[in-house]
Amino acid sequence: MGHWLQRNIIEPGKLPLLLALTAFVLTFLITRVVTRMIRAGKGPFGNVSTGGVHIHHVVPGVVLTILGGFGAVASSRYGFGSAAFAVVFGIGAGLVLDEFALILHLADVYWTEAGRKSVEVVVLTAALVGLVLAGFTPFGVNDVSQGELQDRGRVIVSVAVNFFFALLVLSKGKARMAIFSVIVPLVGLIGLVRLARPGSPWAKRLYRRRPRARARATLRAYRHDRRWAGPRRRIQDLIGGKPDPAIARR
């Protein structure tokens, strides 16, 4: 079955990546279903505790990620071993990134506003891996011809230029575009010609004596956030569950 998939569906050598991505997405979705059932008090599931310590699923996730990662490195790109370790790695990564916000804040923020970061990171990761499966490779190396691939100097220059573009986009306060520009350089070019977000290093340095550019950047950021904040939150709530309402402080 694996050989048939590699011959007819995906490029040779990409089956482990496909299996890892599938396991990653399914693990995240199943985990969210289980945690939402626990939160609602439904079903046979419950939190795992030992000695009064709540064991978060990031713990087995780290173990599985390590096993799958080292196993994948030790195995070849083909065969049952590489496929099995890819699945183990995908499961582990799904469990870890589902609690990414907890790692970031070093606190149990799973059902808070801060916990939305976990959903955002998972979606971003799945999208990037999906682009790689679709044929894109980091820094636009896939756009280099076979002759240029033999010229290491041109490849290094191509990587360096695209990486520089990604850094510039990041300095404009556009983190998502910077990440995607690593895979799709065109995204970086779009980010470069657009105004920087207010408060970004680019805006602080280059818009300091340009009040009109600073005002335009502020207005554009306001309109963009007002337009997309609502739909983004609704999608995050649909995927990961709605956070608990914030308690007003007196």
How would you explain this protein's 3D organization?
Helix 2 runs parallel beside helix 4, helix 3 packs antiparallel against helix 4 (79-98) and helix 9 packs antiparallel against helix 10. The chain has helices at 2-8, 15-40, 58-74, 79-98, 100-105, 116-133, 146-149, 152-171, 175-183, 185-193, 201-206, 211-240; strands at residues 49-50, 53-54. The longest helix has 30 residues, at 211-240. Residues 4-8 have low confidence and may be disordered. It is 69% helix and 2% strand. It has twelve helices and two strands; from the N terminus they run ααββαααααααααα. The chain is flat. The chain is an all-alpha fold and 250 residues long. A two-stranded antiparallel sheet has the order 1-2. A hairpin with a 2-residue loop joins strand 1 and strand 2 (53-54). The protein starts with a helix and ends in a 10-residue tail after the last helix.
Q: Which helices and strands, and how do they pair?
A:
Elements: H1 2-8, H2 15-40, E1 49-50, E2 53-54, H3 58-74, H4 79-98, H5 100-105, H6 116-133, H7 146-149, H8 152-171, H9 175-183, H10 185-193, H11 201-206, H12 211-240
Antiparallel strand pairs: 1-2
Helix pairs in contact: 2-4, 2-6, 3-4, 8-9, 8-10, 9-10
